[in-house]
Amino acid sequence: MKIDGKHYRSIELNDNGWSVRIFDQRKLPWELVFVELTERDQAAVAIREMWTRGAPLLAATGAYGLCLALRKDPSDENLKNSYDLLLATRPTAVNLRWALDEVMNAVKTLPREMRAQAAYARTKAICDEDVEINRRIGLNGLPLIREISKQKNGKPVNILTHCNAGWLATVDYGTITSPIYMAHDEGIAVHVWVDETRPRNQGASLTAYELAHHGVPHTVIADNAGGHLMQRRQVDLCIVGTDRVVRNGDVCNKIGTYLKALAAYDNNIPFYVALPYPTIDYTLESGEDIPIEERGAEEVTHIEGQNPTGTVEKVRITQSPAANPAFDITPARYVTGYITERGLLNAIPEPVEVQKRKVS
Ligand code: MRU
Q1: DSSP letters along 78-126, please?
Q2: Residue 137 is assigned to a structural domain of this protein
Q3: Which residues are bridge partners to 34 per DSSP?
Q4: What distance in angstroms lies between residue 260's CA and the mean position of ligand 1's atoms?
Q5: Residue 326 Cβ < 6 Å to ligand 1
Q6: Residue pLDDT, tens place only, 209-256
Q7: Are residues 149 and 121 both part of a single domain?
């Protein structure tokens, strides 16, 4: 992703080879603030308090958190405690657990003095894999947009998305944004309806920021507007990201996704989910089993924005108690297909081990 002509990944190792650079996403779209993580506990805070967020980026940040922990103290005890502490930071996106397991498996049998180096090597590979996965998701989703553009004789393809599953939620490209950027870059006219995504406004603050920097035409809408736009045939395609998909194809994503899927189903509008393989949780059968993060009420009772003098302020918008479930489940029956790095799928494939067993 480029900002003002300079390419950035959402997370990168600094030149010293060990500390980690992230963006403080709480400050966007007002300010681009870089943060250096030097300690495991800083990585944990950055995840818990959403300086950094989005399922694949949580994975990368958690893995680097474990690297920082092992750099200081490679003991078995610190490895186990740090794994547990980082895993507990956010419960819903399964990518975090996947990445922590990857690093744990890469280091646990090694002598202590080799652990930090091996952890950094595996984490760097996780980050590079994420970039390549998202590039492939883009290539596999692009024909969908091309086809709609052809059917509309080149008129803009209107894509609706919820939350942020862009570059800022991954290491680069994004999942849902990857095919959109590719379509835009090859000259296909696209326009994105960006759900603001209350309460944290990831759509209005982050997706819109990214699309603006890439030059993609877009319009922010209130979360409640999507159904109406679908009824009026002003949406051609919905694409959303996900924090966890289970064996039966149920999709967990940012709260409000389910309502968009219902509206798309009622209006015969294709509803696609873009995901990398670490987002599939083969340990769970159905979406009902996914832990749904309950976040603080303040995210609902307050809202942040810029006042006319340019200062960013938070104001209270209700005196009443508030509830804040952060994710919901879209049943597989409402999903048209899954855009993955392995292709455009209409169901979640069996785990690779099972497929191999069937062939042999
Ligand atoms: O609570 P967040 O902002 O971390 O939630 C993120 C989302 O729901 C994303 O859409 C999802 O993680 C997919 S990221 C490619």
Answers
A1: HHHHHHHHHHTS-SS-HHHHHHHHHHHHHHTTS-HHHHHHHHHHHHHHH
A2: no
A3: 23
A4: 16
A5: yes
A6: 999 999 999 999 999 999 999 999 999 999 999 999 999 999 999 999
A7: no
